[in-house]
Amino acid sequence: MKNLIRPLSMSALVVVTFLAACKKEVSNQSNENQAEPSQVRLSGAIDDPQAVVIKTPFIVSSNLSKTAGKVSSYSIAPLLKGRPTKGDITAPTAKITSPGNSTTASGIITIAAEATDNVGIASVKLVVDGVTKDSLKTAPYNFSWNASSVADGTHTITAIARDAAGNTGSYTITVAVNTTITVLPPATTLPSSYMLATPPVKAQGNEGSCVAFATAYAARSIEQYYRSNATGFDYATNVFSPEYVYNQTKIASDCGSGTAITLTLDLMKNKGVTPWTIMPYSDVNGCSLFPTSTDDAVAAGYKIGGYSKLLNTDKTAIKTMLVANHPVIISVILDDKISNAGPGFIWNSAGTGNIGHGMIICGYDDSKNAYKVMNSWGTGWGDAGFTWIDYDFFPTRAGYYVYVMNY
User: Fold this and answer.
1) C-alpha distances in angstroms, 150 versus 153, 154, 174, 218, 251?
2) What pTM did the predictor assign?
3) How far apart are the C-alpha atoms of 91 and 119, rounded to whole Å?
C-alpha cells in the first residue's frame, strides 16, 4: 500500500516564494458560472457520518497530541438491569467520564468511571467488547487499558456498578482504536505566511455542490498540480470535475441537497474522479447525469490514497499541511457576515445564520491572524472568490475536524 502522507521533513517547510497569494491561475478556458452579488449562493455541507469519522486516520501536532483523543462526548443514558424483587431494589448509577463517547484511542489510556448508590457501591467492573478486564471495589474507579491490545476499529467500553444487594447499573461508550495517528514534530521553521496555487474560482450556482467543489475541484486539483510539478492548471489534466463527485454522493435526488466531506473523499478513494473536460460542471443540466463505464475507467487513474483528519484548533498541524502543499478541506456554519464578504474582509465575529458550507483553506497569514479560504460562489463574492477567517474564530464556526487528502 502506498504511503498515505509523505514524511514531513523540515525541508518541506521552506517557503515557495513565487506563490504570493492563493493564486488564481490563468486558463485558456472561460471561467463560466461566475456568481454576481445578486445571484443565489447555495451551500450544501452536511455532517460527516460519525462511524466514518472515528475510523479516519488522525494528524495532530505535538503540542496537542496529549489531548487529541478528547473529542466532544454524547449523552448516553445509563442502562439499568439485575434488580432484585425485594429488599434494596434501587440500582446504582454508573458513568464513564473519560474518554468521551466516539473518542479515537491509541496506546495506553485511562478509563475513568463514577458510580453512586442509595446504600453503597460494592464494585465497579470494566468490560471491553463484552469481556471483563478489571474490577475495583473502591473509588476512584480509574482503569488502565491498552488500546493496542485490540484491532483497529470500533469497540465498546462498559462500566458496570454493583451494590451489596446485587443491583447493577451500567454505562457504555464506543471508542475507535486507530494506530495510524501521526504526531507532527514541533514546528520551528513554519513561515509567517504561505499560499497555495489554486484553479480559477468558479460558482456552484443553483446546486448544493459546495462540498464537491471543495474536495474535487479545489483540493484534488491542487494536489495534482503539486504532485505533477505542473506550471499551470489545465481542465483536461489537473482540474477535476465536481459534477462527477456531487452527482454520485448527494444525499437525495434534489439538486439542492448536500453531501458530506467524507462521502466525497470516500468516492475519490474508491472510484477516483474525472478531469473537468470529461464531465464539465453545469448547474442547469440537472444533477442526475452519471458517469459511463468509460468515464469511470478514466476516473480510476486519479484515485486518492485516503484521507486524514485534523482538529480545527490545531493551527500548527493545519499550517504544516499547507506548507507541505496539502489544501485543508473544511465545513463551516455560514452567517450573514461571511455570506456578504467583500474585499479586505476577515471573518472574526459571528453574525446571524446557520447553514453548513464546504470550502478549502488554501493559505494563511500570521500578520492577519487568519486562514485564506477559497469558495465556490464565483469571483463576485469576497476578494475575487477568496476571503479570510481569523485563526481563533475559526473553531467556533468549523466542524470539529478538518481534512486533508493522502497520497
Assistant:
1) 9, 10, 13, 38, 34
2) 0.69
3) 10
CB 310 within 8 A of CB 321: yes
* Eight-state DSSP code of residue 47: P
Which 8-state DSSP code applies to residue 46? -
- The residues of the chain scoring below 50 in pLDDT are 1-38, 66-85
End-to-end CA distance of the chain: 10
Domain parsing of the chain, residue ranges: 10-65+184-406, 70-178
Can you name the CATH fold of 70-178?
A: Immunoglobulin-like (2.60.40)
Set of cell numbers at residue 250: 448527494
pLDDT of residue 154: 85
Q: Reduced to 3 states, what is the DSSP secondary structure of residue 80?
A: strand
E-strand stretches of 37-167:
59-61, 79-81, 93-98, 103-105, 108-116, 121-128, 131-136, 141-146, 153-163
Please name the residue ranges forming H helices in 242-335.
242-249, 261-270, 293-299, 315-323
What pLDDT does 152 receive? Answer: 79
Q: How far is CA 71 from CA 150, 187, 221, in A?
A: 21, 24, 31
SS3 label, residue 283: coil
Q: What's the pLDDT score for residue 107?
A: 73
- In percent, the amount of the chain with pLDDT more than 90 equals 64
DSSP letter at 255? T
How do the residues of the chain divide into helix, strand and coil, expressed in percent and rounded to 5? 20, 30, 50
Dist CA 148 CA 146 (whole Å): 5
Cβ(328)–Cβ(22) below 8 Å = no
Q: What is the pLDDT of residue 75?
A: 25
- What CATH code would you report for 10-65+184-406? 3.90.70.10
| Cα separations in angstroms, 51 against 11, 84, 93, 249 | 36, 37, 27, 17
Nearest to 286 by CA among 368, 206, 183: 206
The b-or-e profile of 364-399 (16+ CB within 10 A means b, else e) is bbeeeebbbbbbbbbbbbbbebbbbbbbebbeebbb
Residue 307, C-beta contacts closer than 8 angstroms, at least 6 positions apart: 56, 57, 262, 265, 269, 403, 404, 405, 406
What is the predicted pLDDT for the residue at 34? 43
Cα separation, 155 vs 177, in Å, equals 7
CB atoms within 10 A of CB 192: 10
